[in-house]
């Protein structure tokens, strides 16, 4: 019989995770996941000195051990929040990050003035950006993903959250594949992408990133900009005059991306900073 309370177990988990270099609410989030309840309910259980149910305690201990080994919290729970939805995630797909919400905001600001906009999301991954734009902008969204594993996650999320999205399993540089779903020269109101942008020689410091995010979602050439280099002229062809192109990127890449977009024929290139003050999204107008 477990005579310990939820509070005892959560406090022990916090200490174990801290020794593993993990700080924050992970212990409480794992407790809520294990108990199939909310964080608020777990905090009430902690305050009242209630114990875990036996099956929940087993799940909690297993989840803490996985997190202690630096498996991403989202892989353990199978869920990642993004804006107003919960996305299903797991092995083979890039875990959505809060900073990517800035890419959505930049696109939404532009699309508010558009009539029946059409948007291409390149490298959709879990479908996070595409789903947000479909739900919040009322746009017709075409989402492209080349990775078979990521495509499977995107298909699952889109079916549940934004079934009107056209999901394409292809390389976005395949003109015939795009034309087959109605994407052709001058047809887009916006092209957006959170592409791979880590230089091949730069190994991410976080074990959760380097050990669990797929390489093809992280790395793109010597300077990290190989895919953006291909997408800039593609966007110049596909985006209608007055339309938008927007890329997420690392903070040191903004000047290079502005130059690429200007060379491709875009104007008013501007870099937007995330909540930490880092350059995060660069956008321009066709």
Automatic annotation (TrEMBL):
Release factor glutamine methyltransferase N-terminal domain location: 11-78
This entry's Enzyme Commission designation comes to 2.1.1.297
Annotated positions binding S-adenosyl-L-methionine = 123-127, 145, 194
Enzyme class name: transferase
Q: Which residues bind substrate?
A: 194-197
Write the signal peptide boundaries: none
Q: Which InterPro entries match?
A: HemK-like, N5-glutamine_MTase, PrmC_N, RF_methyltr_PrmC, SAM-dependent_MTases_sf, Small_mtfrase_dom
Q: Where is the Methyltransferase small domain?
A: 101-199
CDD domains (UniProt xref): AdoMet_MTases (cd02440)
Q: Which UniProt keywords apply?
A: Methyltransferase, S-adenosyl-L-methionine, Transferase
What SUPFAM superfamilies does the record tag this protein with? S-adenosyl-L-methionine-dependent methyltransferases
A molecular function annotated in GO for this UniProt entry is:
peptide chain release factor N(5)-glutamine methyltransferase activity
Write down the HAMAP family for this protein, in alphabetical order.
RF_methyltr_PrmC
The cross-references to PANTHER family, in alphabetical order and at most eight, read: HEMK METHYLTRANSFERASE, MTRF1L RELEASE FACTOR GLUTAMINE METHYLTRANSFERASE
Q: What does this protein do?
A: Methylates the class 1 translation termination release factors RF1/PrfA and RF2/PrfB on the glutamine residue of the universally conserved GGQ motif.
What is the protein name for this chain? Release factor glutamine methyltransferase
Source organism of the structure: Agrococcus jenensis
């Amino acid at each position: 019989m477990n005579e310990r309370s939820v509070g005892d177990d959560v406090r022990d988990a916090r200490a174990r995770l801290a020794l593993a270099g993990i700080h924050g609410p992970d212990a409480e989030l794992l407790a809520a996941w294990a108990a199939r309840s909310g964080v608020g309910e777990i905090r009430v259980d902690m305050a009242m000195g209630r114990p875990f149910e036996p099956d929940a305690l087993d799940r909690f201990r297993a989840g803490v051990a996985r997190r202690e080994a630096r498996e991403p919290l989202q892989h353990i729970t199978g869920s990642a929040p993004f804006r107003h939805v919960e996305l299903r995630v797991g092995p083979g797909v890039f875990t959505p990050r809060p900073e990517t919400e800035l890419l959505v905001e930049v696109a939404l600001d532009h699309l508010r003035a558009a009539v029946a906009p059409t948007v291409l999301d390149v490298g959709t991954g879990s479908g996070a950006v595409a789903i947000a734009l479909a739900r919040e902008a009322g746009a017709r969204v075409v989402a492209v993903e080349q990775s078979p594993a990521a495509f499977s996650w995107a298909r699952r999320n889109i079916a549940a959250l934004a079934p009107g999205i056209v999901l394409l399993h292809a390389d976005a540089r395949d003109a015939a594949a795009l034309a087959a779903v109605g994407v052709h020269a001058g047809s887009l109101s916006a092209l957006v992408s959170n592409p791979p942008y880590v230089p091949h020689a730069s190994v991410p410091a976080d074990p959760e990133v380097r050990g669990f995010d797929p390489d093809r979602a992280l790395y793109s050439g010597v300077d990290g900009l190989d895919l953006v280099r291909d997408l800039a002229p593609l966007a110049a062809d596909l985006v209608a005059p007055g339309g938008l192109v927007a890329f997420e990127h690392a903070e040191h890449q903004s000047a290079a991306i502005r130059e690429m977009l200007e060379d491709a024929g875009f104007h008013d290139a501007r870099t937007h900073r995330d909540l930490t003050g880092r350059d995060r999204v660069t956008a321009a107008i066709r």
